[in-house]
Amino acid sequence: MPLFPQDALNDGVRKREVFGWAMYDFANSGYTTVVLTAVFNAYFVGVVAQGAQWGTLAWTLTLALSSVLVMIVMPALGAYADLRANKKRLLAISTAGCVAGTVMLAFAGRGDVAWAVAAVVLSNTFYAIGESLTAAFLPELAKREALGRVSGWGWSFGYFGGMLSLGLSLAYVLTAQARGEPPTSFVPVTMMITAGVYGLASLATFLLLRERAVPQAQAIRQAGLRASVERLASTWRRARQFRDFSWLLACGASYQAGISVVIALAAVYAEQALGFKQAQTMALVFLVNIAAALGAFGFGYWQDRIGHKRALAVTLAGWVVMTVLAVMATSPGLFWVAAVIAGLCMGSSQSAGRAMAGLFAPTEHRAEFFALWTFAVRLAAIVGPVTYGVVTVLTSGDHRLAILSTGVFFIAGLLLLIPINVERGAAAARDKT
């Protein structure tokens, strides 16, 4: 049985187009891996904020600000993309914005807090918009019964893109450190590497991926913004007809809050609580990406076999175990074990959520529904890291208690998963198609 069967795809969809779609996951993963997880977050706290006690909270508030912006613009933007059938054009704009913002990060040095904050807000806002738009292509490519595995293909391939950016950056960092260069010398180069990989790899997406949606009559009759807002308001009013999607949004907002902490603050925790050095942290994140790629790929097949709900529950239980191990770790060894578990759960849980959102999305509302999913994820990106930052401030820098508080989000996600009826949610989407 082939690993990438043609019968998993909708009629008229070729494998090379799926490859082009997956290349966007490959392209943008370097941003989260290098900027948010492995390099710039710790650099922001230790160098830009000059090690001040408020540095961690400042970092989390910066990410929160970008998430607020996404929450404001993305739902209406998703509705606009559906009406005008221009997901691909908007994706190109968001890609250019994130690449430009990442280049700006290269010019943030010691004490340049305002510049760094502006660059992070710009780049992370455009990153989130692009992530939502590319996810909206998934139901156009994959059959409903294969959403899990196709989502897994893209998500797992994406981690290899993250490893490419991180590997190139790590090679440069090790060379620069051997020459005795300070972080203010080699971290900016890693930002340029990340921006370059993002921009170049995304070209495959724009060359191979087709826009299958067609403009809707409402877009022709009305101005874009007005039609988008009216469309969004209509969806909110009819939300009771999509109650399983609503429960999924609540569940996703909860567990994604915990994942946001891991993405944004794992390197900070490793350096502040366990004394990791920059190269050690980057090597750790590299291992996490390998585990995440394997988890997302293999899990997608398993998800389609045992069911979306059960599979997601397993990954959330894994996250709880990871949190306990991270808190217990007093030496690098146990923390490395926790990191591998985090990697396996990260790829699988994020891919599973995207697949379930695709299953619950009516055909003519795909970009809009994925925009609402992005709204929930961005809300999580505010609540999770800010909670961590507030705990560190209130406890005079107790990162162990802060990471322990993260486990509450995963437990809440498990509880909010219980009311979801996958068959009922999928049927509601088909009835509105």
Quick one: how many beta strands?
0
What's the story with the biggest beta sheet? Answer: none
N-to-C SSE series?
Answer: HHHHHHHHHHHHHHHHH
Could you estimate the helical fraction of the residues in percent?
A: over 70%
Q: Round the mean pLDDT to the nearest integer and report it.
A: 85
**What is the overall silhouette?**
globular
Q: Estimate the strand proportion.
A: under 5%
Number of helices: 17
| Top CATH class | Mainly Alpha
Please compute the radius of gyration using only Cα atoms.
Answer: 20 Å
- CATH topology name: Growth Hormone, Chain: A
Going by CATH, the architecture would be Up-down Bundle
Task: Determine the CATH superfamily.
Answer: MFS general substrate transporter like domains
Decide which structural class fits the backbone: mainly alpha
Distance between the termini: 32 Å
List the helices and strands and how they pair.
Elements: H1 15-38, H2 40-48, H3 55-84, H4 87-105, H5 113-135, H6 138-141, H7 147-178, H8 183-208, H9 217-221, H10 224-237, H11 243-274, H12 278-306, H13 308-328, H14 332-359, H15 366-394, H16 399-417, H17 422-431
Helix pairs in contact: 1-7, 1-8, 1-11, 1-12, 2-3, 3-5, 3-10, 3-15, 4-5, 4-8, 5-15, 7-8, 7-12, 7-14, 11-14, 11-15, 11-16, 12-13, 12-14, 13-14, 13-16, 15-16
Task: Give me a quick take on this structure.
The protein has 433 residues and is mostly helical.
Q: Would you write up a description of this structure?
A:
With 433 residues, the protein is mostly helical. The chain is built from 17 helices and no strands. α2 (40-48) packs across α3. The model is unreliable at 219-224 (pLDDT under 50).
